[in-house]
Amino acid sequence: MSELDFLSRRVMTGRLSRRDFLGRAAALGVSAAFANTMLSTAAQAQSPVRGGILRAGLQGGESTNSLDPALNLSQVPFNFCKQWGEFLFRLTRDGGLENRIAEDAGPSSDAKTWTMKIRQGVEFHNGKTVTAEDVAATIERHADKNSNSGAFGILGNVDTIKASGNEVVITLKEPDAEFNYLLADYHLLIQPNGGKDNPTSGISAGPYKVTVDEPGIRYGGERFENFWDKEHMGFADQVEIIVMNDPTARMAALQSGQVHFINRVEPKIVDLVKRLPGVSIENVSGKGYYPINMFCDTPPFDNKDLRMALKLAVDREQMLQTILRGYGTVGNDFPVNKAYPLFPEGIEQRVFDPEKAAEFYKKSGHSGSILLRTSDVAFPGAIDAAQLFQQSAAKCGITIEVRREPGDGYWSEVWNKQPFCLSYWGGRATQNQMYTTGYTSNADWNDTRFKNPQMDQMVVASRGELDEEKRKGIYRDMAVLMRDEGGLIVPFFNDFMDAVATNKVGGYNKHVAGELMDGYSLAECWATA
Amino acid sequence: MGGATVAKLIAQRIALGVLLLLAVSVLIFAGTQILPGDVAQSILGQAATPQALENLRRELGLNDPAYIRYFRWLFGILQGDLGTALSNKRDIATALSGRLANTLFLAACAAVVSVPLAILLGLLAVRYRNGIIDKAISGFALASTSLPEFFIGYLLILVFAVKLQWFPASSTVYDSMSFLQRLQAVVLPATALTLVVLAHMMRMTRAAVLNVMQSAYIETAELKGLSPLKIIRRHAFPNAIAPIINVVMLNLAFLVVGVVVVEVIFVYPGMGQYLVDHVSKRDVPVVQAVGLIFAAVYITLNMVADIAALLANPRLRHPK
C-alpha cells in the first residue's frame, strides 16, 4: 500500500494526474472505488493546518538591507516582503494576474487610462483601513522623479495618479495594455500613505506582522489576525527567515531540521540531495537568463555577420549540461521564455553550427582575437561558461580571449560599460516590459546598445494593443528580430532550485514566477510536524 | 625609581598606540576613497536609472570634497558618533555594538578554551620532548591548523549537527537568547576556531620554553634534584612568558578580526560578515567604522602584549 500512498501524494502535489493514478492503482490490483477513497484521504491530509512555526534559510540577505520596499533587491527582502506586504495584483501560476488589493481593474479603450477599484475592508497592521489614497500615495512615491525606488524604471510611463472614492485612476504617457502586470512588481507593496512618512516602518496589509528585523541575520513575523484573506494564507503562527549565504550551511540547516525551506540549491549537489529522505528538490523555471552581451554600436560587434558568427559558435546544450547540470532551458537569443504570458511558440531553435559560424565569420572580415570579460558575480559558473564559449568558438575558427574581471565592482565597471561580457538578467512581468527595459533605443539598461527603430516601433505598438492575439503576433516579430539582429546571446535560462522538507511541510506547490512559490511559501504552506 | 620608569614606558606605548590609530584612520579613509565603483550604484544595483542614481548621490552628500568628509568623520567619532549607514539608514553605533558583542563573545569562548589548552599542551610537549606524547601533540595541532577552517567547520557540522544533532547547524544568536542557549549555539564555531589557533600558540610555547631549557640555571635546577614539571613551571615558563604573550595576543586579535569564513559557514552574526556586506555595497561609513574598530583591537592587543612583556621582564622592571 505504501506505493499507493506515495502515488496519491504525488497526485496532490501535481506531479501525477488523477487518471494516471487510477491506472497505476488498477495495475496494483486495487478497485477504482478504493483508489478514489485514497485520493480523497490524501486530499484531506493536504488541507491546511493552523499553528506552528515555519522557517526558511535563504541566500541573498545582507546587513545592508532595509525594510523600505523601494530598496528591495536580493532574495531575502524579496521573500520577506511577501510575508508582510500586500500588493495590488499578484502573478498566478498560469501566467495571469490575481486581484489582491485592486478588486477590479481595467484600461480605457486607448489603453492610456487605467482605473482600479480598491477592495473594501482590507486592514493595515496598524489598524488603519487601506484606502484609495494609500494606494495612490504608494505609486506616487515609487514613480516620483526624486525616488530611488527599484520600481522607478517600470513606472516611468505614469503620467498622473488620482484617488477618488474607492477608485484609483492612473493616466499613462503612452498606451500600455499590460500596465496591471507592472503593478504586481515586488517593490510596490501598499503602505499607509504610501510609506511617504516612514518608508521603513514595515507596515502593510500582508498575512504576517513584522516582529524581528535584523538585516543580514534574521527576520520574523507573527500572524496578522485581521488579515483579509485568511483562508488562503497565514497558516503558521509565526514565520522566520534566517539569512544563510553559504550553500553548505543552508543544506546542513535543512538536513538537521532547523529550517523547512532553503533556496538556491547548487546544481552540482542536486543529485546528492535527491537521495535524502524527507527532502524534495523543486526546480522552477524562472524568467532569469545568463546572457553574453555584445554592443551593437561598437567595433567589431557593429558587424552583423560577426554577431551572427558568435551566436552560432555557442554550444548551448553543452553549456546547459556543464554549467547548470541540465537545470535550465536553452535560450534562443531573445530575452523571453515560456514563463511569460503570450510566449511566441515555434521559432526555430538556434543550435551550435561550426560550419555556418565559420562562414559568417569569414563574411564579417574580422581577424584577431576578441576580448570577452567575465566574473563569477555575473552568475555562478560564468568563468566556466566563458571558457566553454572560448573552446566552442575555437572549433569555428574564432579566437576568443577570456579575461577574468574582479567581482568587486563588476556591475559598475564592466557590465554595461565594456562591449563584450557575461551578465545576468532577472525576468520582468511581461514581454513588453522586458524589451522596454533592455532592448529599445532609449532603454535605461540597453546593455547591448541595440538601437533599432523597427524594434522601438513594435514595442510601442504591442504596448497599446488590447487584442491579445494581435499582441502575441507582435511579440513574435520582436523575438525574431532580436534573435537575428540583436547583440544578445542567450545560451540558457536558469532554473531556481528550492529544497523543501516535505515531511514537515504541507502545501508546497511551485510557482512559475519565482523561487519558493514566488516568495509565498512561508505564507501559503503549513507545518505538518 | 623603577616604578616611574615603567610608568613612563607604558605611557610611551599608549601614546604611540593612539598616534598609530590616528595614522590608520587616515589610511582607512584614503583607502575607502579609492575603492572603484560608487555607493549609489551599489545600493541600487543593476537596476538603477541615471536619474535615481543622481538623486541618491545628492541625498547621501557624496559630492563634498574628501578632506571635509574626513574631518567631519573624525570629529564625529571622537564624540562617539559613528554616523549612519548609507544603505539602510541605520545608526552604525547601534548596529555595530550588537555585532561587536557577538564577535567578542565568540572570540572569548574560543580563547577561554584555546589559550590554556595551547599552553598546557605546549608545556606537556616540553616535558615529554621528542617522545611519543610530544609528537602526538604536535602532529594533532599541526594537522588541525593545516586544514582550512571551512573544512573543519563543515566537518563539525556534518558530524555534530547533521548526524548526531547535538548542536544546531547554524549559530544564529539573537537578543532574546539566554546565556546558555548562546553558549550552545557557539560550541561548533568556537571549536573550529580553537582548532585553527591552537597550533600556533602551542608550538610557540614549546619553542620558547625549550629555548630557556638550554640555560645554565635550568641545569642547576636539575642538579638540585627538582622534578621536571616543577622546573618548567617555576623556572622555565616564567622566563619564556614574553614571546608566549606575544603570540597569544596575535591569535586573540585573529579571533576578533579574522573569522569571517567561520562566521559565514556557521551563519554567525559577527563583525566580519557585517564588514563584507558593507564593502560590497560601498557603504563607506560602515567600512570606515569597522576598519577603525579592527585596527583599535589589533593595536590595543599588541600594546597589551608589549606592556605585559615589559612587566614580565625583571631587567626592564628593575633597571640598574
Automatic annotation (TrEMBL), chain A:
Example GO BP: peptide transport
Record key words, sorted: Signal, Transport
Main location: periplasm
One GO CC annotation: ATP-binding cassette (ABC) transporter complex
Annotated ranges, domain Solute-binding protein family: 98-446
UniProt-listed InterPro entries: Peptide/Ni-bd, SBP_5, SBP_5_dom, TAT_signal, TAT_signal_bac_arc
Cell compartments where the protein resides: Periplasm
Coiled coil: none
Database matches in CDD domains: PBP2_NikA_DppA_OppA_like_17
Sample GO molecular function, one term: peptide transmembrane transporter activity
Family the UniProt entry places it in: Belongs to the bacterial solute-binding protein 5 family.
Protein's name according to its UniProt entry: Peptide ABC transporter substrate-binding protein
TrEMBL record, chain B:
Pfam families the record matches: BPD_transp_1, BPD_transp_1_N
Membrane disposition: Multi-pass membrane protein
Top-level lineage group: Bacteria
Main location: membrane
Entry's transmembrane regions: 14-35, 104-126, 147-167, 179-199, 240-266, 286-312
GO BP: transmembrane transport
Keyword set, alphabetical order: Cell membrane, Membrane, Transmembrane, Transmembrane helix, Transport
GO cellular component terms given for this protein: plasma membrane
Domain ABC transmembrane type-1: 100-305
Cellular compartment(s): Cell membrane
Protein family membership: Belongs to the binding-protein-dependent transport system permease family.
Protein name: ABC transporter permease
Organism name: Tianweitania populi
Taxonomic lineage from the root: Bacteria, Pseudomonadati, Pseudomonadota, Alphaproteobacteria, Hyphomicrobiales
